[in-house]
Amino acid sequence: SVQLLHCCRFAHTINHLLLPHYLTSTIVSTMPLVKVFARVGMNKAIPLQSLQSKLCKIWSTKPETTKLILSRVEDWTSDSFDEDCYIDIRAYGKSERTREFVLEGMTQVQQAFADHDLIANVRLETYDGERYFHVPPKK
Predict the structure, then answer these.
(1) 3-class state of residue 105 by DSSP
(2) Taking Cα atoms as reference points, which of 110, 94, 103 lies closest to residue 124?
(3) pLDDT tens for residues 83-97?
(4) What is the pLDDT of residue 27?
(5) 102, exposed or middle or buried, with CB in 10 Å at 0-12, 13-18, 19+?
(6) For the segment 9-44, what is each residue's pLDDT rounded down to a tens digit?
(7) What is the DSSP letter of 131?
(8) Which DSSP string corresponds to 54-77?
(9) Cβ-Cβ contacts under 8 Å for 3 (sequence gap 6 or more)
(10) In whole angstroms, what is the distance from residue 34 CA to residue 4 CA?
(11) Averaged pLDDT for residues 55-68
(12) With 0-12 CB in 10 A as exposed, 13-18 as middle and 19+ as buried, what is 78?
């Protein structure tokens, strides 16, 4: 059975359906959703708290909006790369997140994993914030 490794889930803290656009548009600076896939048999540690701190610095977010969840996958094809982790990032497509800015951030994410002796294959796609919804649990 294949399990997904969800690491670094960064989501809005306000549901877009409940607030008008002019209020939510300034809140959408939270960090993107990051899924990290790692093989079950990989013996290297994935230090979640340290990675959380580094990713918060890269994307200018706070730990309160950053959640890391670790799970593992049985296997994947290794046709092109021999990575320890496959990082799949989904981020809000803001005008200031230019191609250059995003590529630099992705390189920094890759380096954050390399700092822990982890080879990361990083991809990122952006989405339209008007089509993103999140309902956090009530406190």
Answers:
(1) helix
(2) 103
(3) 999 988 887 788 888
(4) 40
(5) middle
(6) 333 322 233 333 333 333 444 556 778 889 999 999
(7) G
(8) HHHHHHT--GGGEE-----BS---
(9) 71, 72, 73, 74
(10) 12
(11) 79
(12) exposed
CA distances from 51 to 36, 39, 135 (A): 11, 18, 25
What is the DSSP track for 35-57? EEEEBTT--S---HHHHHHHHHH
Position 27: which residue type? Answer: I
Taking the model in full, what pTM does it have? Answer: 0.72
Q: Are 109 and 123 in contact (CB under 8 A)?
A: no
**Number of other residues whose CB lies within 10 A of the CB of residue 15:** 12
Token pair 């701190």 is found at 53
Structure tokens at 54: 């580094």
pLDDT of residue 31: 53
Question: What is the mean predicted confidence (pLDDT) over 40-53?
Answer: 91
The proportion of the chain whose per-residue pLDDT surpasses 90, expressed as a percent, equals: 33
